[in-house]
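Need tokens for this chain, all 105 residues.
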Amino acid sequence: MPGENVVCEDIGNVQICGSVSNATPAQYSTVTVYGRYLVNADGQAGHPMIATWHYRTTSPTCEGVTDEDGMAQCSRSIGGASIGYQVNVDIEIDGYEVRTWFTPQ
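Here are the structure tokens for all 105 residues:
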């Protein structure tokens, strides 16, 4: 998994992982969220990923689609994020979910 704050959940034969490109980004920068979806340790291609970003007052989303390695990504500007407030990001692929986070500086 690329990035920081890598979190993986194993549910039966499924593994879903999530991470962010920078755990302590500057305000008004761009953060990329990564998701990985494996079944029986094999990447699953063509599955939509929805990432929900939980800011202090809003919860916008971004979307991606898994590639042959089961990896998906999407990016957002974090101009609306409050400095010092941990932004949780829920990554959902094929009904499975994992949470990662970042804290703007």
